[in-house]
Amino acid sequence: MEKKTIVAQFTEIKAILEAQGKNELAEFIQGRIDVQAKRAENRKPTKTQVENETLKVRVKEILENADGQMTATDILNADVDAFKTVQKVTALLKVLVDAKEVVKTVDKKKAYFALAE
Q1: Where are the alpha helices (DSSP H) in 1-117?
Q2: pTM, 2 dp
Q3: Minimal CA–CA distance to 30: which of 6, 11, 17?
Q4: SS3 string of 56-84?
Q5: For 55, how many CA atoms within 13 A lie in the half-sphere containing its CB?
Q6: CA distance 32 to 53
Q7: CA distances from 89 to 48, 56, 70, 109 (A)
Q8: Span 58-99, pLDDT tens digits
Q9: How far apart are CA 43 and CA 76, in angstroms?
């Protein structure tokens, strides 16, 4: 279970406890929620997350310079040194597709990618 889900459930439990008049327990749960919120705001991106941001920019540059759509393998071959594996390219493309920055088209079980308009 993710911490976000736990915090959401804690918030619901806190509301129920307050409605029942159990303020000490509600205050304790609020303290746990505050600790999680403080931890979340103090986090900095990991080394991999920072690297992935630069690689996503590189993927978009390659797609921008492309004539039409490209496969993940085509993008890998455009800059093998940066991406290393097709799995890395595919993971980056999925993030970009989810963010609606790249459009994915599937034709005969082969995925093609292009920049979103």
Answers
A1: 3-19, 23-42, 47-65, 72-78, 80-83, 86-98
A2: 0.64
A3: 11
A4: HHHHHHHHHHCCCCECHHHHHHHCHHHHC
A5: 24
A6: 32
A7: 14, 9, 12, 18
A8: 989 988 888 888 898 998 988 888 888 999 999 999 999 998
A9: 31
- Which pLDDT score, from 0 to 100, does residue 42 have? 74
> Does the pLDDT at position 11 exceed 80?
yes
Could you tell me the two tokens for 30? 């609020």
In single-letter form, the type of residue at position 72 comes to A
* Residue from 66, 63, 69, 67 nearest 92 by CA: 63
pLDDT value at position 21? 85
Dist CA 41 CA 22 (whole Å): 29
Residues in the chain: 117
Q: What is the pLDDT of residues 30-52, one digit of tens each?
A: 888 888 878 777 778 889 888 98
Alpha-carbon distance of 66 to 74, in angstroms, equals 10
Spatial separation of the C-alpha atoms in residues 75 and 90, rounded to whole Å: 10
Return d(Cα 61, Cα 102) in angstroms, integer. Answer: 11
